[in-house]
Amino acid sequence: MTVPMLSKIDAESSEPIARRVYRVLRGAIVTMQFRPGQALSEQEIADQLGVSRQPVREAFIKLSEAGLLTIRPQRGTFVVKISAKQVLDARFVREAVERAVVRKACETITPSGLTELRDNLKAQWDIAEDPNPERFLELDEAFHRAIAAAAECDYAWRIVEETKAQMDRVRYLSVPYATPIRRLIGQHQAVLEAITARDPARAETAMGVHLREILTSLPELEGKFPDLFSPDEPGVGAAKMPPRAVGRARTVLSR
Fold this sequence. Notes:
Elements: H1 17-30, E1 39-40, H2 42-49, H3 53-65, E2 69-72, E3 76-79, E4 82-83, H4 84-108, H5 111-126, H6 133-150, H7 154-163, H8 165-177, H9 181-196, H10 200-211, H11 214-224, E5 229-230, H12 243-253
Parallel strand pairs: 4-5
Antiparallel strand pairs: 1-3, 2-3
Helix pairs in contact: 1-3, 2-3, 4-6, 4-7, 4-8, 4-9, 4-10, 4-12, 5-6, 5-9, 7-12, 8-11, 9-10
């Protein structure tokens, strides 16, 4: 097995090593450096990152709980293929949570919060002519996270992060292969305009339109990259949405 080269973990960081390893590996899976179905070796990854096997093992367990890896005793650890069903399930939960969040943001956002969103949107438009999928996804993530922060809904954002692991791989594929980046940025702009106008109904509608975009791109990507997707049959390796995340989502939406 050949593992793509990973940068060594920053020894100067105060962040726990296992958390840093998890973040690096999750990023490698989402950006398809680790392909769906690929086997991963604890020792090889530990050597590349310059860490012991223990934090890699801990990261593997957490990635398994997130539905990105499957750990098979005596057989190995494998990147889970993308489950269209789980992508749709995660999208449903994410839309329900973020529509509620953006409504609240219309009431609570501060001038500095609006400035942060405007600066982020400008950075998105700046790369629209020469799209960089990884950079756009960073900005997209920051945009949605800033809305949650403006709404004082950090707990809700943690739920979104836990549920959207499968979605993130599809989002990464969609930017160059299925969804024009300008369409996504335009949807972000519609959300920001509604928040600026403090119009919760309009903001909620705009967020729903944006988060339903994946319903269009997903079938196209399944057709282009059938080897990356699971047939979603029992026992074939379809991922499961983390039960803890589902429970948390129900708690937030019932408030």
